[in-house]
Amino acid sequence: MFDALSDRLGSVFDRLKGRGALSEQDVRDAMREVRIALLEADVALPVVRRFIDEVTEKAVGQNVLKSVTPGQQVVKIVNDALVEMLGGEDVPGLDLNAAPPVVVMMVGLQGSGKTTSTAKLAKLLKEKQGKKVLMASLDVNRPAAQEQLRVLGEQVGVATLPIVEGQQPTEITTRALQSAKLQAIDVLLLDTAGRLHVDQALMDEMRAVAGIATPRETLLVVDSLTGQDAVNVAQSFSGQVDLTGVILTRMDGDARGGAALSMRHVTGKPIKFAGTGEKLDAIEVFQPARVASRILGMGDIVSIVEKAAQAIEAEEAERMAERMAKGQFDMNDLRSQLRQMQKMGGLGALAGMMPGMKKAKAAMQQSGMDDKVLTRMDAIIGSMTPKERAKPELLNAKRKIRIANGSGVQVQDVNKLLKMHQEMERAMKQIKKMGGLGGLAKMFGKGGLGAAMPGLGGGAGGGLPGLGGGGLPSNLNDLLKK
Questions:
Q1: Distance (Å, rounded) from C-alpha 275 to C-alpha 292?
Q2: Tell me, what's the pLDDT at 474?
Q3: Backbone phi, then psi, for 410, in 5-degree steps?
Q4: CA angle 198–202–205, rounded 5-degree value
Q5: For the whole model, what pTM was predicted?
Q6: The domain at 3-86 falls in which architecture?
């Protein structure tokens, strides 16, 4: 997401940071390019004007121009302004502080992803917050809309209100409230009907439903790919309905980002969630500070850690911790790591969130590298015997040929995987020399991540010991050159 905007801003700030001193004209020239980049990203003109004025005023100050690192200071000012534009440091989550059932009403135009977002939100509330959720479809106009929500409910393991043919939205709302109270439901999600465009009938229906349900949250679902149209829709709804927040869908496909950057200014309401894919767990709480960091190529390490925590099962993590403490790392461990990378979204998703990895991600795309490389490596390990996976040193020329034939690759690919394993094994041994995980934890407490692993994320050569810059194996790119 935001790839086009991120690339443009990255080139502007690379030039600024490359200079020892900055004049006021340098800053104004850079801001002119930033202004063009934001307009090309389909950010609303009033938002761009306000943003550029605020940033320029702060950036041409004497404290910046005469500082030791003026370029870095300007980037910091832009980052802070982006966070503010996206909604500020602390965007509140769902307000569920009310007597159950707490009603959350989903509104938006037809085709915005409202029904899918309802199911995603239900799954999130159930699995992350332990809430008992009920979903009800009020869409009696679109064919099979109610059936669609029922099917999605089965997929995410959340109850849906039984369908009664011929009932109107207000009648369904009343029945949903009664059912939620009887079942001791914590959160009731109402999936309202959409239209192809904003009209009075749509608004009247929503107001009638809201009058009965008195929702604690009214979330507008808009498709970020529609850019300025999404902003216009949000403006129309905010003038008619008492919105409490916005859900932006298809954020993963939005290379420009104009909708996200304009939404808060136009509606005055926070973006609360972002849909990041088709899967029913592909929804994230919208965090302005993290999004701003991604836009400026600073990475999003917190999200990587959270994804890792979700991907790694507790037992597996415990087993790996014990082996790391002993400096052990065999092919079974490598296979486990590769599968966790796939669960976390694959190479592209991880590279996009790591600091300074924008160029590496572009290089991966140019070389044709994709997540098939992870599948290929898994196939190579799968062609080994249990004994070979536990003791890779057993792999002689004859065994390598058998493994290559069994996994559909060349012997040189097997050799590259073995080299990658050796690098990672060396890293594990270095961790053991540092005193294992306990020793690392002490270093984190004293001097942070940089003290524990010098060079991690710090430019050329940065990364885990024995690994390539950015923490990915240094020969990973070679694995695709067949």
A1: 17
A2: 43
A3: -90, 160
A4: 160
A5: 0.61
A6: Up-down Bundle (1.20)
Q: For CATH 1.20.120.140, list the domain ranges present in the chain.
A: 3-86
The position carrying tokens 């911790």 is 321
Question: What's the chain's average pLDDT?
Answer: 75
Which residues of the chain form CATH 3.40.50.300? Answer: 102-295
Range with lowest mean pLDDT among 38-47, 140-149, 246-255, 455-464: 455-464
**Higher-scoring residue by pLDDT: 345, 98:** 98
CATH assignment of 301-480?
A: 1.10.260.30
**317 Cβ neighbours under 8 A, 6+ residues apart:** none
Could you name the CATH architecture of 102-295? 3-Layer(aba) Sandwich (3.40)
Average pLDDT over residues 110-130: 90
Give the span between the Cα atoms of 227 and 43, in whole angstroms: 8
Torsion of CA 22, 23, 28, 33, to 10 degrees: -40
Residue 298 phi/psi, 5-degree rounding, is: -90, -5
Residue ranges, comma separated, of all CATH 1.10.260.30 domains in the chain are 301-480
CA dist 410 and 476 (Å) reads: 15
Q: How far apart are CA 323 and CA 446, in angstroms?
A: 25
